[in-house]
From TrEMBL:
This is glutaryl-CoA dehydrogenase (ETF). Residues 238-380 form the Acyl-CoA dehydrogenase/oxidase C-terminal domain. Belongs to the acyl-CoA dehydrogenase family. The keyword Glycoprotein does not apply. Residues 135-226 form the Acyl-CoA oxidase/dehydrogenase middle domain. Keywords: FAD, Flavoprotein, Oxidoreductase, Transit peptide. Residues 19-131 form the Acyl-CoA dehydrogenase/oxidase N-terminal domain. Its EC number is 1.3.8.6. Its cofactor is FAD.
Length: 392
């Protein structure tokens, strides 16, 4: 792979909206990605393997629980810092960002928000340091966009719960030490349970043959009469709103992360357009190529503003789920379009692993599908503005 010469676009001087702390956090993440991700990531994506050696580095840059209070091992940062870290990591690779997103927003967040103090003390510091990796089990083979239809269930056996069912498409599953699993009790109410590796009847087979997020491990979570101790139930929130609250946090991170992937594609295409000569001129001198670049930087700038404003609202507690949906949908769509255009600008070289664009492009096919598909987020906006439900 080519050396990482990334220069972040900032067309509207958005740095002026950031605090010194934001910039420090972002720059540390940016340097780490340049040093520890860019040189190795293409190889791991080609091998379809998660680079486990990066876990400590992710913890060191605050990517595991950026906004979780320091007393639990988190970085104690604000929402914009969290977004900036996700942006930088996804600039390197969406799969690596997925690992960090799941750990932070889908595992640490529910334990922090819905767990009791004993659960926080037991799990959060180990997750923040990367000693333990977690996964989040919501999606099932027959229930993706409609998670409320889940069939995974648990029964109260007096001194423990008995968990049965299966989850599919679960990031980090093959090597997670714990899984936050969403299942229905005997009354059909959804609860979160912490399932630990080693519990009898719990297995995590890996999903192979992915053409997307190849450097992120995906798998199933299978529960065959798993005895879950009663103290592993998250006591402070139940119902579908509990997992959806986690998804709000993760989708917010994705809205920022997608900007990183788009920035990397744009920056690569811009540099290439000045170096690659055809018909005796740099291809960047042709109007058609300039149109692509001009549209890319316009869309990136709009997405940056959307994410920043959402960060402010998320920090002051006013961002709605529908507003988060809009940013996730818009920014991922923006990134996938830019990846496609940028790939074309590199001609044949664009399909090789010499450059990052094709990998981003393939990764973004998962990002546009997980955490609510492109269609589902549109329907969320539609419902929000009309008050009419088009889901069913
Ligand atoms: C790489 C990867 C990692 C993932 N990681 C996780 C994870 O860690 N944890 C987890 O729980 N899940 C995870 N997922 C699952 C992901 O969230 C689901 O794939 C996603 O929610 C879509 O569900 P589905 O694949 O079953 O598609 P479906 O729900 O079957 O959707 C198929 C198509 O139908 C459309 N559709 C569905 N319902 C409607 C409707 N009402 N109106 C209009 N169109 C509709 C969808 O938009 C989509 O285009 C991951 C997925 C991938 C690919």
């Amino acid at each position: 792979m080519k050396p990482d010469l990334f220069e972040a676009p900032d067309y509207y001087n958005l740095d002026e909206l950031l605090t010194e702390e934001h910039k420090l956090v972002r720059d540390a993440a940016r340097e780490w990605v340049k040093r520890d991700i860019s040189p190795i990531i293409e190889d791991y994506a080609q091998k379809a393997e998660f680079p486990t050696q990066i876990v400590k580095g992710l913890a060191d840059i605050g990517a595991f629980g950026p906004y979780i209070p320091e007393e639990y091992g988190g970085a104690g940062l604000d929402q914009i810092s969290y977004g900036l870290i996700m942006q930088e990591i996804e600039r390197g690779d969406s799969g690596v960002r997925s690992t960090a997103s799941v750990q932070s927003s889908l595992v640490m967040y529910p334990i922090w928000k819905y767990g009791n103090e004993a659960q926080r003390q037991k799990y959060l510091p180990k997750l923040a340091s990367g000693e333990w990796i977690g996964s989040f089990g919501l999606t099932e083979p027959d229930h993706g966009s409609n998670p409320g239809g889940m069939v995974t269930n648990f029964k109260d056996m007096g001194d423990h719960y008995l968990l049965n069912g299966a989850k599919m498409w679960i990031s980090n599953a093959p090597f997670c030490q714990i899984a936050v699993v969403w299942a229905k009790n005997e009354e059909g109410r959804i609860h979160g349970l912490i399932v630990e590796r080693g519990m009898e009847g719990f297995s995590t087979p890996e999903t192979h043959n992915k053409w997307s997020l190849r450097a992120s491990a995906t798998g199933e979570l299978i529960f065959d009469n798993v005895k879950v101790p009663k103290e592993n139930l998250l006591p402070n929130k139940s119902g579908l709103g509990a997992p959806l609250g986690c998804l709000d946090s993760a989708r917010f991170g994705i809205a920022w992360g997608a900007i990183g992937a788009a920035m990397d594609c744009y920056d690569t295409a811009l540099r290439y357009s000045k170096e690659r000569l055809q018909f005796g001129k740099p291809i960047g001198q042709f109007q058609l190529q300039q149109k692509k670049l001009a549209e890319m930087i316009t869309e990136i700038t709009k997405a940056q503003l959307l994410a920043w404003r959402l960060g402010v609202m998320r920090e002051n507690g006013t961002a709605t789920s529908a507003q988060i949906s809009m940013a996730k949908r818009n920014n991922v769509d923006m990134a996938i379009t830019i990846a496609r255009e940028a790939r074309q600008m590199l001609g044949g070289m664009g399909i090789t692993g010499e450059y990052s664009i094709m990998r981003h492009s393939m990764n973004l096919e998962s990002v546009i599908t997980y955490e609510g598909t492109h269609d589902i987020h549109l329907l969320i906006t539609g419902l929000d503005v009309t008050g009419l439900n088009a889901f069913k």
